[in-house]
């Protein structure tokens, strides 16, 4: 499984940015794809995740980011997107996408051990 993240950059506070992650070599029907972020001196933090089963998708987002961050997927392109609105300087971080097996339990999305495959990060810088 390979993941390729893109879409990072420099943006002013209050603006929006959309990250994308192309996922290849996986079973698209049974997979969890998550976004994590890491800023200097801090632990890598779970941002959001889509966990997919044949019966449907489950989306999980960190409580403090709900309302600003939205996760979506484009099945035709094997791509997921993280739409980030009303960005704040504290959103500055390297953002990573990761893939692993599917799960139902909401708290699992924050656990790095749930994801066996990681892409290289994309840097998001939000200026004040």
What does this structure look like?
This protein has 128 residues and is mainly beta. 0% of the residues lie in helices and 53% in strands. The strands form two sheets. Strands 2, 4, 5, 6, 9, 10 and 11 form a seven-stranded mixed sheet that branches. A hairpin with a 6-residue loop joins strand 4 and strand 5. It starts with a strand and ends with a strand.
Secondary structure blueprint with pairings:
Layout: E1 2-6, E2 9-12, E3 17-24, E4 31-38, E5 45-53, E6 56-61, E7 69-74, E8 79-84, E9 93-100, E10 117-118, E11 122-127
Parallel strand pairs: 2-11
Antiparallel strand pairs: 1-3, 3-8, 4-5, 4-9, 5-6, 7-8, 9-10, 9-11
Oligomer: single chain
Strand content: over 45%
Total helical elements: 0
Helix content: under 10%
Enumerate the spans where pLDDT stays under 50 for 5 or more consecutive residues.
Answer: none
Radius of gyration: 14 Å
N-to-C terminal Cα separation, in Å?
A: 37 Å
Chain-averaged pLDDT:
95
**Largest sheet, strands/sense/barrel:** 7 strands, mixed
Q: Given the C-alpha coordinates, what overall shape results?
A: globular
């Amino acid at each position: 499984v390979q993941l390729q993240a893109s879409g990072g950059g420099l943006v002013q506070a209050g603006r929006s940015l959309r990250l994308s992650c192309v996922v290849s070599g996986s079973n698209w029907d049974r997979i969890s794809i998550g976004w994590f972020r890491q800023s200097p001196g801090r632990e890598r933090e779970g941002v959001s995740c889509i966990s997919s089963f044949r019966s449907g998708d489950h989306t999980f987002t960190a409580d403090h980011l709900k309302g600003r961050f939205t996760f979506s997927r484009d099945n035709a392109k094997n791509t997921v997107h993280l739409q980030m609105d009303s960005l704040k300087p504290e959103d500055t971080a390297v953002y990573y996408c990761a893939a692993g097996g599917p799960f139902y339990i909401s708290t699992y999305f924050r656990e790095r051990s749930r994801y066996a495959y990681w892409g290289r990060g994309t840097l998001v810088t939000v200026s004040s």
